[in-house]
Write a structure and sequence with these properties.
Shape: globular
Distance between the termini: 20 Å
Helix content: 25-40%
Strand order of the largest sheet: 1-2-3-4-6-5
Largest sheet: 6 strands, mixed
Number of strands: 6
Number of domains: 1
Order of helices and strands: HHHEEEHEHEE
């Protein structure tokens, strides 16, 4: 049986490979240079294009995949969609990794938004309408790297505790010259 931390690392590896592509690094530099904010939809679209072309590691992918919610949670909505999902080559045909993406230049606001989304994300039933099984669900956030990067983990741990969210671990890496990526 896979360990959740292994799956967190697999999600991290896919996202790091995405951010490491030359085209994305150039785009992130332009985004920063031109003070563009709110590039979450761009990220989702570019990630989908990357997954579509990453046929060495990605077997299938999907955007906005629909799920019913587990009504035993405190979430009131009946249905939701996860931003992006993919199946790695070598994994069972119905075992997918899903990611909810967040972007805000301020790391605190980004982490707050990730935690607010975590309730929705973690309330998804383990099978989608189409029968895809959730192997792992992650929240991923991209933000400007603060002057004191050690603040990120402290703030994330405190905020998750405040929201009473348990996670399998953290994945924090610098992406490009100016941004950090946090996954839990």
């Amino acid at each position: 049986m896979p360990k959740p931390k292994d799956d967190l690392d697999k999600v991290g590896d896919v996202l790091l490979a995405f951010f490491d592509s030359e085209r994305i690094r150039i785009s992130l530099d332009l985004i920063h240079r031109n003070s563009v904010s709110g590039w979450e939809k761009w990220w989702q679209t570019e990630l989908a294009l990357y997954l579509a072309d990453a046929n060495q590691t990605i077997a299938e992918w999907d955007m906005e995949h629909p799920f019913d919610t587990d009504l035993r949670t405190s979430l009131k909505q009946m249905r939701m969609a996860l931003d992006i999902g993919f199946r790695l080559k070598g994994h069972a045909k119905d075992a997918w990794h899903f990611i909810e993406l967040k972007q805000n230049n301020d790391f605190r606001k980004c982490i707050d938004n990730m935690c607010k989304d975590a309730e929705k994300v973690y309330s998804a039933k383990r099978r989608s309408f189409d029968g895809l099984q959730v192997r792992y669900i992650a929240c991923a956030g991209a933000f400007l790297t603060p002057k004191h990067p050690d603040e990120i983990m402290d703030y994330a741990a405190d905020t998750l505790l405040k929201y009473k969210i348990e996670v399998d671990g953290f994945f924090l890496e610098q992406v490009g010259k100016y941004y950090s990526l946090l996954i839990f």
